[in-house]
Amino acid sequence: MKADPISLLTSLGHAVTSRLDRLGLAARFAFAVFRVLGVVFLRFGLIIRELYFSGVRSLSIVIVSGLFVGMVLAVQGYEVLQRYGSTEALGVIVALSLVRELGPVVSALLFAGRASSAVTAEIGLMRATDQLAAMDMMAVDPLARVIAPRFLAAIFSLPLLAALFSAAGVCGAWIIGVKLIGIDDGAFWSQMQASVDVRIDIVNGVLKSIVFGVAVGLISVFEGFFAVPTAEGVSTATTRTVVTSSLAVLLLDLVLTVMMFRGLN
Amino acid sequence: MSERQEIIRIENVRFAYGERPILDDLSLTIRRGEIVAIMGASGGGKTTLLGLIGGRLTPSTGRVFIEDQNVPALSKSALYALRRRIGMLFQFGALFTDLSVFENVAFPYREQTDLSEDMIRTLVLMKLEAVGLRGAAQLMPSELSGGMARRVALARAVTLDPSIMLYDEPFTGLDPISVGIIGRLIKRLNAALGMTSIIVTHDLNETLRLADRVVVLSAGKVYCDLAPDDIRVSTDPFIRQFADGLPDGPVPFHYPARDYVGDLLAS
Fold first, then answer.
1. Does A235 contact chain B (CB < 8 Å)?
2. What are phi and psi of B71, to 5 degrees?
3. Which chain A residues are within 8 Å of B91, Cβ to Cβ?
4. CA A20 to CA B215: how far, in whole Å?
5. In terms of Cα–Cα distance, which of B93, B206, B189, B193 is closest to B149?
6. CA torsion B14→B18→B19→B23, rounded to 10°?
7. Tens place of pLDDT for every residue, chain B, 267 residues?
8. Disulfide engineering: A241 pairs with which of A23, A125, A223, B146, CB 3.0-4.6 Å?
9. Beta-strand (E) ranges in chain B?
């Protein structure tokens, strides 16, 4: 088929409006979810189950990944630092990279792949098998009973997972740097202690992972709730959750990093 | 007031999915205590009708009254209050797959009442006994056969003793024994709990045995509204095609297409 300018223009217009449409749907959905959050807090038992499935079940992958990332950072960091004769700063480099960036970002990416995809698939299948409709007909709001607890679980578990990721990373760096390469143990820890600031580094890192938790959690429940109720639809929705979440995390990280650390000395 | 007062009144309802009209100026009245079967070709708006009655769908025009409340105009909280008195059995049961049979039936009690755990246990076991599955209380939905799952879903749908029951194709995909069991349960529950039942179904035999009235939909309207005996003896070609399962008739076998020879020879 020839691509004449008019049909190109219409398909471009259609692409734009359909994306805006979906964005509007997502915004309305988010608003509806936020409205029922209060109700969910009164029934914390619902969140506990989701914390277990999303958070606790992600522990192993997050801690193992953190350990390896920390080890790699130590090897690469030592390589560069020894050129300047300041290898004892290894602890600082590793800790700041982890707490500020890699902890929140990588754990959010892992969370999107490990937990959010499962949440999307679960909600999508509940929809496909009429479970959400049945709940709605029993006068139980699926947003409050199914969606909000999974959303909150993401917000609660991501900061904790990010913290564990960073802690595991520091341990990994310590194993490589101190135990294998032989950097001074005291220097490794004391320099880290002196240079990592609670407010600038740790609080900002935690804030980042809370924002990522909101984004990743919302994307996973949204894609599941509006999944086309077929096998293909659920699989597409799951893929979309991972792709959209990953991009959202990286984009948000850039924005947050500029806001938090620009002009900081 | 007549002795059988009306409980559901559907007035001049139109409904369309996008450009495709499903219901076209449909009106229907259902009286308290009746078992009404809704029949018609697939895609003919039967399930849509249940969606309108349950307030899950909103008609583009027209009104749906349940006991003087206009369902499409209700607020969410008023709609939820109304739905506590409506039970619905979904086509494949729609059991919660992460909960056991017991917890599925207990779900409405836990969500809607403040009953004690002892009381809930007693009530759930009574409901399960009524559908003959008390012994299956601890099984998970994945361990049930299709017929058993449908019976558990039925027990769950009537937990709060609804005054209206909506059945969406309750017999689909079941073996003849299960069809008979579900059919008898529907009839017994309707009488025992004083309910009004609306059944969307394709199973003509079971329907004729069960229903007080059979409403046949065609082209988005009520084509006819007859007692089961009248369906059996009807000479209307559409009803005969339906009752006898004839492949061609007023409902054509072929999906609309252009001329066959012309289509084959087109290059």
1. no
2. -55, -50
3. 130
4. 43
5. B93
6. -20
7. 445 788 999 999 999 888 888 888 889 999 999 999 998 877 778 888 999 999 999 999 999 999 989 999 999 999 999 999 999 999 888 999 999 999 999 999 999 999 999 999 999 999 999 888 999 999 999 999 988 999 999 999 999 999 999 999 999 888 888 888 899 989 988 998 889 999 998 888 888 889 999 998 888 888 888 888 888 888 888 888 877 777 777 777 777 788 888 888 876
8. A223
9. 6-17, 20-31, 35-40, 61-66, 69-70, 86-89, 164-168, 196-200, 213-218, 221-226
Q: Does A137 touch chain B (CB under 8 A)?
A: yes
Q: In this structure, which amino acid lies at residue B92?
A: F
Burial status of residue A88 (CB atoms within 10 A of its CB: 0-12, 13-18, 19 or more): middle
CB-CB under 8 Å, A134 with B90: yes
Residue B5: which residues within 8 A CB-CB, separation 6 or more? Answer: B31, B32
**Domain ranges within chain A, ordered by starting residue:** 41-258
Closest CA to A113 of A216, A4, A8, A225: A216
Beta strands B196-200; B164-168: pairing state: parallel
HSE-CB of A109 using CA atoms within 13 angstroms: 13
Query: Among candidates A233, A38, A55, which has minimal Cα distance to A127?
Result: A233
DSSP B239: H
Please indicate whether, in this complex, the C-beta atoms of A138 and B107 are within 8 angstroms of each other: yes
Quick one: closest CA in A to B83, which residue? A139
Tell me if A153 sits within 8 A of A37, measured CB to CB: no
Distance CA A241, CA A113 (A): 9
β B6-17/B20-31 pair status: antiparallel
Please report how the helices A148-174 and A5-42 are oriented relative to each other, as an axis angle in degrees rounded to 10.
Answer: 90
What span, in angstroms and rounded, lies between the C-alpha atoms of B9 and B31?
9
Determine contact: A257 vs chain B, CB below 8 A. no
CA distance A151 to B252: 49
CB pairs under 8 A between A and B: 45
Tell me whether residue B148 is exposed, middle or buried, using C-beta atoms within 10 angstroms of its C-beta: 0 to 12, 13 to 18, 19 or more. Answer: buried
Shortest CA gap A127–chain B (Å)? 9
For residues B102 and A108, what is the distance between their CA atoms, to the nearest angstrom?
Answer: 37
pTM of the model: 0.87
Whether residue B18 contacts residue B33, with contact meaning beta carbons closer than 8 Å, is answered with: no
